[in-house]
Amino acid sequence: MNYHIAVALTSCVLAGVFGQFSADWGMLGWIGFASWAAFFAAGGGIKGAQKTVVTNLFGVAIGCAVVYIASVTGMSNPMLLPLMGGVFIMCAAGYFSFLSFVPGSFIGCAAYLGSGALALESIASLLVGIILGFIAERGALMLAKGKK
Question: What is the pTM of this model?
């Protein structure tokens, strides 16, 4: 079987289950899907999962810092400068090899901010999305007899 067809099959089954039950499990489906996509964008496999976990969590940490700084500034537009600083840090941190997957950082930050600052739900959803991507990839490799 062709790998793309195989990954389509494994992903659609996993996506259906996750999409149906993510809210019941206390997760935000859109965040899981974003990190799932990031897993594949990072190259998949163990290395892609590692890159995605580290950068997603870094992005959540930046998001937390942005919200905290914005809450204590008293500015008329409190998100402007903290968010600019956060984006600068996420991009500049790409200099370091373990943070070089900058889209993962943006996804983590966006997940936290878009969730309304729900840290645990965001982190759980990000991690489950990466796990689902890994499972979809492994299942597809089995169906495709190891040929990507």
Answer: 0.93
